Amino acid sequence: MTIIINLFIVLIAITHLYILWFEMFAWETRGRKVFRQFPAELFPKTKVLAANQGLYNGFLAAGLIWSLLISNVAWSYNVALFFLGCVLTAGLYGTFTASKKIFYVQGLPSLIAIVLIILKRWVL
User: Fold this and answer.
1) Predicted confidence (pLDDT) per residue in 92-113, tens digit
2) Which residues of 46-72 are buried (b: 16+ CB within 10 A; e: fewer)?
3) Domain locations in the chain?
4) How confident is the model at residue 37 (pLDDT cuts 50, 70, 90)?
5) pTM for this model (two decimals)
6) Which single residue of 26, 54, 61, 115 has CA 20 to 30 Å from 20?
7) Sign of CA dihedral 81, 115, 92, 16
8) Angle between helices 73-97 and 108-118 (to 10 degrees)
9) Residue 9: how many CB atoms within 10 A of its CB?
10) What is the model's pLDDT at position 124?
11) How far apart (Å, rounded) are the C-alpha atoms in residues 84 and 80?
């Protein structure tokens, strides 16, 4: 179970590092492909805002990676739960305000990881 939990955490962290990259460094190229529904003229005007969002995604990834480096199991799970909760919250907000696809990319994986951690801590 620990391996599966850690795999989810790693995959979620990698996803957020990818989001960091395209929002901070490839907003006007890759960002246009990810957000096809946005008008092309919007991307140069929102480059700084996207970079700020990318930085926050980097913080989420850093927190998830940090949780994997903590040797105390209880604290490792507590830190992971906090950052997974942040990812889930962002995913739900994005689902209701931007695109339903965000739930499948961010919300669902973090929700699964949270459930697995809770099951491991309190049931198994």
Assistant:
1) 999 999 889 999 999 999 999 9
2) beeebeebbeebbebbebbbebeeeee
3) 2-123
4) confident
5) 0.91
6) 115
7) positive
8) 150
9) 23
10) 59
11) 6
